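HUMAN: I'm a chemist; might I ask for a sequence paired with its structure tokens?

ASSISTANT:
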Amino acid sequence: MVIISYKTNPNIRKDIEPLFISAFPREERPEPGFFFSSFDKSNNELYGFYNNDIFVGFASTIIYKDICYIFFLAVSEQYRNQGFGSGILTELKKLYKGHTILLCYEVVDYKYPDYENRKRREQFYKKNGFKENPMITNEFGVEFQTAVIGRPISFREYQEIFKIGFGEFTLKHLKEVK
């Protein structure tokens, strides 16, 4: 798998943007313009992943001290369930060796109509070595379970990640549920 950084090749936006819009519900993602402009910050990174020159997915990260937060990760629909998501996580683990790796997924509960999809995501991350972090957050009205490879992450650290990644204004939309 070949990894291309958006900072070194902004042309990968043409591959990433349609997947970014289709893979994440509107309430769980910022506007594309804001999303892509956030990679001007030194701690934010966006990677496109390619298999034999074919775009298969992307991941965005924010680095804060010893934490690598995987903010978004998506695999193109036609390449799902073929090992590419696990491959992307493996590459990120190599890139950020020595960091605690943090990510979030929607809270898994029978009350949600997309329960099966949420459960599948949770199982995918667990299969790839992530363990539940003892914190659930509410971001812009959506509840997320945090998960880590490495040490537990506090809500204060989580707030700092958002602050350096997107700006202080995001903190008013971020709450600790548990």
